[in-house]
Amino acid sequence: MKTERSNGFHVIPQPPALYVAAVVLLAGVYFVTGKLGLSLAFLNASASAFWPPTGIALATLILFGRRFWPGVFIGAFLVNFTTQGSLWTTLAIACGNTLEAWVGAWLVMRFASGAKAFDKLHTMLSFVGLAGVVSASISATIGVTSLTLAGFNSKPFFSVWLTWWLGDFVSAFLVAPFFIVWLNKPISLPRPVRFVEALGVCAAVLAIVGFVFFGWFPDEDKNMPLGYLALLPLLWAAFRFGVRGATATALATSLLVLVGTLHGYGPYFKADKNASMLFVQAFIGTMTITALTVAATMSERRRAEEALLRNEAELEKLVEQRTARLQQSVAELEAFSYSLSHDMRAPLRAINMFTQCFVEDYGDKCDQTGLDYLKKVRSSSERLDRLIQDVLTLSGTANHQIQLQPVDTDKLIHQIISERPEFQPPHACVAVQSPIHSVRGHEASLTQCVTNLLSNGVKFVPSGTKPRISIRSEAQNGHIRLWFEDNGIGIDGTSKDRLFKIFERVHGEARFPGNGMGLAIVRKAAERMGGTVGVESEVGKGSRFWVQLPAATSEYQI
Ligand code: ADP
Q: What does DSSP say about strands 543-550 and 532-537: parallel, antiparallel, or unpaired?
């Protein structure tokens, strides 16, 4: 016996005895349910609008393999042989029923993902189209044609055909999905809350069906047009319990609706019993397709959400990995620039020193032009040295670990001013509005901030104006903001955002020499101390730079 792959199933070679037992079992179930179906055949003894065997046969062939078709053939043969017709009509009907199941199973396996058809909306609809519309036509056409040709049908061909077809069609997407979705994966025990909710669905089905199709509540009208109410618990089941909930509820509701209608209740009851059956089947069919559509849509949505969550997690991991790699590259680059800058200072100092020596020892042997050239060599090498120092400061600010501790800001600022003549009269007037609040920071880093801000304050002033800088502090929410207000040329609004980036300059090099690193150093130093920086300014109205750092003690906390 060959191994066959049926969607999600590896059908293992089985001993013939087991295969025979399975075929006999299928034939038995087909026979019993077929007899039950034919007990509701009102138009022609062989054509019933209620035909569960179609769904059972289809589910079996999809789940376990099409080689079990003999079970369908034997079952169908026996049902019809014990009903009406000759040996030939019975054989023809059995062939039609077997073909219906075999072709239906093949089409579903080939074009509708087999047992997984109900996981997606488009495969579910393909299932209904292929296993329902197409394969049910095979059985109905062969069956009714052979009965009519052999003289066992006195009713209009199309009426009998429609009854037969509708029974098989509804069974294909009511009974088959139920067995497929409940048997193709293991069933796990529901959580107690879910179990209670499932009981709620059952209660709703019973209440609505009892009310509309069994006349549980006293009412004169036994046939109130309220059949659509049965859709409510079905949608509930489909939304909350997926395809399994939808198929189970649809099957249970359908059976109850059928029984109720046969007893003369509900909107689909008609004096003509076959008409009643057709109406009920049309109702059941519509209801089931709606529920399956909702359930398939929900399960598609759930899977999409799960995939999205998985993607998000993967993306986060990827970003983390890339960030770590980037940080490593930046650290390596910073270390490289630090060592390069460091090594460049020695030859620069040599150039400077030897130029100085040359001027001192041989200056009298040079004419004025030569001396001017040497002066330019010195000033250029001094500028390059300052640039390298700034690069070193910036790399050092980024690389070295610092210890945060309380810093007496007031004392530090006064000390910086006293050490630098350019911050003192007559060059400039720096007013400190003491006492300046102490901060929690790092003295060397804070010195870099203050020095750079003061240097800029005295540098960026209109020519002929004496630089005036006022320093004050402000406590807010556990932080101290240090303000540096100057009477300089100011900065236009659009440039403010980029000032703190490295090498960004707003004003021309000719009037205000510099390398664009001062404010970058201020920002890095402040950030390393857990602080922030900013500026408020207008062209021609001076600038107010600020550095905000954590307060030294909790006394300023609000
Ligand atoms: P540098 O001073 O070497 O040019 P900075 O990074 O310290 O570099 O400053 C960047 C730019 O920000 C300066 O070139 C200048 O255009 C502007 N700037 C900084 N401080 C002031 C200030 N106090 N007043 C006006 N412009 C300023």
A: antiparallel
Going 119 to 27 to 100 to 281, the CA torsion angle's sign is negative
- Read off the pLDDT of residues 45-99 as tens digits, 9 standing for 90 and up: 777 888 999 999 999 999 999 999 999 999 999 999 998 878 999 999 999 999 9
* pLDDT for 47: 77
Q: Give me the sign of the Cα torsion angle 129, 133, 139, 145.
A: negative
13/3 Cα distance (integer angstroms): 6
pLDDT in tens, 464-522: 999 999 999 999 889 999 999 999 999 998 888 789 988 888 887 778 888 888 999 99
Ligand 1 and 485: CB distance under 6 A? no
Q: Which residues contact 162 (CB under 8 A, 6 or more apart)?
A: 278
Sign of the Cα torsion 473, 475, 481, 485 reads: negative
Of 505, 517, 522, best ligand 1 pocket probe by most atoms within 8 Å of the beta carbon = 505
Query: What does 514-544 look like in DSSP terms, one character per residue?
Result: --S-HHHHHHHHHHHTT-EEEEEE-TTS-EE
Q: Helix, strand, or coil here: 340? A: helix
Query: Does residue 342 have its Cβ closer than 6 Å to ligand 1?
Result: no
Is the minimum distance from the CB of 468 to ligand 1 under 6 angstroms? no
- Bridge partner list, 11: 4
Tokens encoding 251: 């099957």
pTM of the model: 0.59
